[in-house]
Amino acid sequence: MDLDGNKRVFHRLGAGAATASSSSGSDNNNKLQKVCFHWRAGKCSRFPCPYLHRELPAPSQSMGNGVAATSKRPYGFSADDQYAGGGMRRNSNITNSWGRQQNQHQQGYGNRVGGVVKKTEKLCNYWVQGNCSFGDKCRYLHSWSSGDCFSMLTQLEGHEKVVTGIALPSGSDKLYTGSKDETVRIWDCQSGQCAGVINLGGEIGCMLSEGPWVFVGLTNFVRAWNTQTTTDLSLNGPVGQVYALVVGNDMLFAGVQDGTILVWKFNTATNCFEPAASLKGHNLAVVTLVVGANKLYSGSMDHSIRVWSLENLQCLQTLTDHSNVVMSVLCWDQFLLSCSLDKTVKVWVASESGSLEVTYTHNEEHGLLALCGMHDLDGKPVLFCSCNDNSIHVYDLPSFSERGKIFAKQEVRSIQSGPAGLFFTGDGTGQVKVWQWSNQPTATK
């Protein structure tokens, strides 16, 4: 995974968040060391603000090789209160102020900044093919992203069709990617080279890593590998393609093409998975699953989201506010976020009666394909929204202020956060890109 000839990207893992800069006067120094309360609530309107618009750096965790770890997952299955499937960590400092400053923190794409006119937010097709003759004078983007909060480190080439899953097993120095080209590729995180290709003989619908396990959703079964013990299992039962996988309460859940959610219980004594239940209720394929707050949330092609109890596996509620396929669901704090081909992201919160209700709707110009939540180097929660116009929109939460965009040749179906400010995207051409957050403070204008 060389950059500029000989730099290994996994050795270029950024340090912690930037510390506050000093200024003259003891009062100003004291103020600069405090985090703005209004910024945390997503509604600070002061510019310049005398307080910090970023979280103070938290102590980093070591992965044993100098790399700060962002995951607290143990080796094995996650606890009930952990948000599997890409959920975001709790942050009790942020209140329910969704979308309050959606346009006030824009970075001004298309405006004149420093005497330079920003380019039209569209990739130059000639640049993508490597033969644009306009150079810096081209009106279209010669970059895979806009905004200055992250940068692309390298591209992993090899898959021939859309990348449908990216997994980083705990305790492993390998990255796993799955594709509809019927292969799983294993990448060495030190060299960036492909360390192996596994041909599974069928399209891969999804992937999940949980502890040392890697799960692969295929047609009519789920493949399970333990990267530490080399255990290789095939879990039978699904009818049709497996589109979604998640773990919760020592159970593995699989969303299947026929609308069912199959459940396996992990038996620690025999080190295998035993069939536990089949959850029925959706009329069409289940394409997304997430676990949070001792509940399972499932999104389907039937336009609905179902809420299931992890204790008795009963359906507690059916949400029908979306008008098209629910492509992705995500748990963050006490909220549930969902996106759909109906061009909306909906934020759900529990009412006094305990049922979920929409508290905010964010609209996009195009249908949405995937959500991923993570934190930047300052600890600020960020939402990635992949759209079917081949772009990813990156937003601060809860304000939905735009941080930047990521572009691809085709639609991005897979987004995965990694350690030490790294994250990964996989698109419809089969390309996997490695990205890194920068520690440059976000503009607050």
Automatic annotation (TrEMBL):
UniProt keyword list: DNA-binding, Metal-binding, Repeat, WD repeat, Zinc, Zinc-finger
Zinc finger (C3H1-type): 30-56, 118-145
SMART domains: WD40, ZnF_C3H1
Recorded superkingdom: Eukaryota
Ranges of residues in domain C3H1-type: 30-56, 118-145
Renumbered ranges of WD repeats: 156-197, 279-318
Molecular function in Gene Ontology: DNA binding; zinc ion binding
SUPFAM superfamilies the UniProt entry points to: CCCH zinc finger, WD40 repeat-like
Pfam families linked: WD40, zf-CCCH_4
InterPro entries according to UniProt: WD40/YVTN_repeat-like_dom_sf, WD40_PAC1, WD40_repeat_dom_sf, WD40_rpt, WDR86-like, Znf-CCCH_4, Znf_CCCH, Znf_CCCH_sf
Protein name: C3H1-type domain-containing protein
Organism encoding this protein: Cinchona calisaya
